[in-house]
Specification:
The protein has one helix at about 5-40. It is mainly α. Keywords: Membrane, Transmembrane, Transmembrane helix.
Length: about 45
Amino acid sequence: MTLLQVITGFIVGLSSLVTLAFELLNLFQQRKDLSKKEGPHHD
């Protein structure tokens, strides 16, 4: 593997990780909003 392939693979992996992290953050935010609408529920 050339250095360019390594760098490209690293960037692609990093960007997919960032996308996954943002999706998880959005999911947590939606759950917070839902719990606010439903009222004071505690797990």
